Amino acid sequence: LHRVENYNQHVVFWTMTDPEFVISEIKKTGFLEKTNFPLTEKDLTIVQQQKQGGFPLKPFVKIVVIVVWNALFLYDFIPFFLGNNEKPPFGTGVCTALGLLFTTALLTLISGDFRKLILKEGRTLEDIKKSAIFILLISGIMFTAFLTFALS
User: Fold this and answer.
1) Do 9 and 46 fall into the same domain?
2) Does one domain contain both 89 and 140?
3) Model confidence pLDDT, tens digit, residues 57-110
4) For 44, 53, 112, 115, which has the most beta carbons within 10 A of its beta carbon?
5) CA distances from 110 to 75, 104, 119, 136 (A)
């Protein structure tokens, strides 16, 4: 039993331990007893976020990132596959794509205004902080490696 209207009413908890233990832990959280209580403000916030979808970025941001990312990679890869370029396809486009990814992750972490621009209503830095740090680290390493490769 749960309160989210558009979710399947049948919830299954798989476990390798004693099922009675799992049920007792679920009861300790109040999950079974709270289904008939009025919604709290926290419940309403959770329901609102669930209606928005799980991914915290605004839809236009996802589209722009995918289009720009692919266009920058194609800038390097198309000439390579057409035989117009003797060097491997890791040049300006790849480095620019990684640099933009790094910059976007950095701005997400340090700029509240930038977060307002890219995050859905009601989402905060805490929703994406770990992912942004991971992207910052990986894109920074890859940018450095590809830039070094492209300049050699």
Assistant:
1) yes
2) yes
3) 888 998 999 999 999 988 887 777 777 666 666 778 888 999 999 999 999 999
4) 115
5) 30, 10, 14, 12
